[in-house]
UniProtKB/TrEMBL annotation:
Listed InterPro entries: AAA+_ATPase, ABC_Ni/Peptide_Import, ABC_transporter-like_ATP-bd, ABC_transporter-like_CS, P-loop_NTPase
Protein name: ABC transporter domain-containing protein
SUPFAM superfamilies: P-loop containing nucleoside triphosphate hydrolases (SSF52540)
Record domain ABC transporter: where: 11-259
Membrane topology qualifier: Peripheral membrane protein
Alphabetical keyword list: ATP-binding, Cell membrane, Membrane, Nucleotide-binding, Transport
Length: 267
C-alpha cells in the first residue's frame, strides 16, 4: 500500500460496475471526494443514482457481482481500494463507522442494547467488562436516550424507532470512528425525530472532530448537516461546492430542479 502525506478520506476517480445478465454495466464513475475530520460532506441525488454504492465501496461492502473497477480510496494517504482485502480491512480498522437507514435490522434483537455497545468497547477499544459497561451508559446518555440507565437493559424491540437509531449511533461511536458514513439514517423516522437525530449528528461531528459523509435523496435533510454538497445524477457528480454556494447559486439544471421541489414542499 502506498503512503502519501495527505490526511482524511479521499476518493479519486472511483468507478463501480455491476454484472447484469451477461453484460457489465457502469453504475457510478468519476467520483472524487475529500472528507477531512470535523467536516461534513453530503451526497444528494435521486433514488438509484449510486449514492449507497459509493459508501459501500469505501467500506468494502459492495454486494457480490458489484465491483470497484477504477479509482483510489485513501485513508490518510493509505490506499485501500487495491490493497489485499486483509490489509485494507486492517487499515480501515474501526476508523470508519457506518449507519444505515433501518435501525431495526442493525441491532441484535436478542441482546440488551447497552450490552451491544459495551461489547464494542470491550472488543474494539480493549476495555474490561466494568469500564465497557460504564462507558456504554455514558454513550447512551450522550446520544440523549431518555432514562439511559433504565434503557441500558432494554431489547431493541422495546424502544421506539428514533431511540433505536440513537442506539445504533451510540454503538458506532463506541468504536471511536474518525469518519462516520451515514446512508439515509433518518429516512425511516418521523419528521420531529429526524430533526433531533440530524442535530445530534451535527453536534457529535463538531464535539468529536469527526468527519461525516451523509447520503440522502432529500436535499433539505442533507443540507442541514453538510458543509460541502455533492449532487449526483445517473452515477455521476453533476454539482459540488460549499453547501451555501450550491443552494444559492446552483449551476446544473438538475440541481435547480431539486431546489425548486424543496421550495415547493416548504412553501
Ligand atoms: N447488488 C446489485 N447488483 C446490481 N446492481 C445493483 C446492485 N445494488 C445496486 N445496484 C444498482 O446500482 C444503482 C445505484 O444503486 P444505489 O443503491 O447506490 O442507489 P442510491 O442512489 O443509493 O439509491 P437509493 O436512494 O434508492 O438507495 C441502481 O441502479 C441499482 O439498481
Amino acid at each position: 500500500m502506498s503512503e502519501l502525506a495527505e490526511t482524511g478520506l479521499t476518493v479519486r476517480g472511483l468507478a463501480v460496475t455491476a454484472r447484469r445478465r451477461r453484460e457489465t454495466v457502469t453504475i457510478v464513475s468519476d467520483i472524487d471526494l475529500t472528507l477531512a475530520r470535523g467536516e461534513a460532506v453530503g451526497i444528494v441525488g435521486e433514488s438509484g443514482s449510486g449514492k449507497s454504492l459509493i459508501l459501500k465501496a469505501i467500506m468494502a461492502l459492495l454486494p457480490s457481482g458489484v465491483t470497484a473497477t477504477a479509482g483510489e480510496i485513501r485513508l490518510d494517504g493509505t490506499e485501500l481500494a487495491h490493497a489485499p482485502a486483509r490489509a485494507a480491512r486492517a487499515a480501515r480498522g474501526h476508523r470508519l463507522g457506518l449507519i444505515l437507514q433501518d435501525p431495526s435490522t442493525a441491532l441484535d434483537p436478542l441482546m440488551r442494547v447497552g450490552d451491544q455497545i459495551a461489547e464494542v468497547r470491550r472488543h474494539v477499544v480493549g476495555r474490561d467488562g466494568a469500564s465497557a459497561r460504564a462507558e456504554a451508559l455514558e454513550l447512551l446518555e450522550q446520544v440523549q436516550i431518555p432514562d439511559a440507565a433504565g434503557r441500558y437493559r432494554a431489547y431493541p424491540h422495546e424502544l421506539s424507532g428514533g431511540q433505536r437509531q440513537r442506539v445504533v449511533i451510540a454503538r458506532a461511536l463506541a468504536g471511536e470512528p474518525e469518519f462516520l458514513l451515514c446512508d439515509e439514517p433518518t429516512t425511516a423516522l418521523d419528521v420531529t425525530v429526524q430533526a433531533e437525530i440530524l442535530s445530534l449528528l451535527d453536534d457529535l461531528r463538531t464535539s468529536r472532530a469527526m468527519g461525516l459523509l451523509f447520503v440522502s435523496h432529500d436535499l433539505a435533510v442533507v443540507s442541514q448537516v453538510s458543509t460541502q454538497l455533492l449532487v449526483m445524477r445517473h452515477g455521476r457528480i453533476v454539482e459540488r461546492g460549499a453547501t451555501e454556494q450550491v443552494l444559492t447559486a446552483p449551476s446544473h439544471p438538475y440541481m435547480r430542479t431539486l431546489l425548486d421541489s424543496v421550495i415547493e414542499l416548504t412553501a
